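Hi support team,

I've been running sequence recovery on a batch of backbones for a student project. Most finish fine, but this one hangs at about 90% for roughly twenty minutes before it completes. I'm not sure whether the input is malformed or the queue is just slow. I've pasted the structure tokens below so you can try to reproduce it. Let me know if you need the job ID as well.

Thanks,
M.K.
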């Protein structure tokens, strides 16, 4: 099995019965997908449940997979729909903001100076502040930010996943980045 094979090729192989291709896809995407779900819902147990549901849905629908877009766009569309389904089942319903027309995120926060052993505590504090700021974002902005930073999706792919136009996805991402910068510069 070629671990460097593109995701779409691996998914096609899995669709055609190659279980090893699924293992490679799962290994490649489990971390970013889990972090996306965790930061979307804020509870580890719920994130784990949603995570398992997304992968089970992928397994159930593999025969219908067609590489019309990037695999990650398809995977995160499944995840987005699962999050929406979860909120719809709750008494409060879907958050109102959803109705608007290689390295983990925390590792990207620290620059080389902060990675020095003397600054480890500062790096951890900054990472924790970032997580708090991400959690405080409105749901749609948080989702756009996480899809970009955790999953590396483009604006067009974020728009496809969330079912909005590219300009709306761009605005959500821009507002999220502005709020995060403002939140991290406050002392």
């Amino acid at each position: 099995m070629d671990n460097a094979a593109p995701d779409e090729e691996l998914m096609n192989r899995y669709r055609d019965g190659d279980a090893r291709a699924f293992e490679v896809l799962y290994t490649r995407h489990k971390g970013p997908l889990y972090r996306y779900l965790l930061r979307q819902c804020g509870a580890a147990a719920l994130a784990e449940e949603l995570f398992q549901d997304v992968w089970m849905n992928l397994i159930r629908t593999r025969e219908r997979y067609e590489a019309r877009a990037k695999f990650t766009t398809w995977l995160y569309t499944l995840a987005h729909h699962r999050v929406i389904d979860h909120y719809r089942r709750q008494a409060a319903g879907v958050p109102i903001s959803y109705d608007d027309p290689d390295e983990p995120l925390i590792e990207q926060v620290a620059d080389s100076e902060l990675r020095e052993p003397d600054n480890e505590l500062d790096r951890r504090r900054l990472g924790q502040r970032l997580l708090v700021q991400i959690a405080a974002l409105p749901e749609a902005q948080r989702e756009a930010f996480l899809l970009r930073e955790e999953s590396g999706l483009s604006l067009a792919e974020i728009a496809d996943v969330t079912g909005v136009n590219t300009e709306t996805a761009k605005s959500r991402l821009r507002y999220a980045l502005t709020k995060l910068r403002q939140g991290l510069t406050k002392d």
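--
Follow-up from support: It reproduced on our side and the slowdown came from queue contention, not your input. The chain is about 70% helix and 0% strand. No action needed from you.
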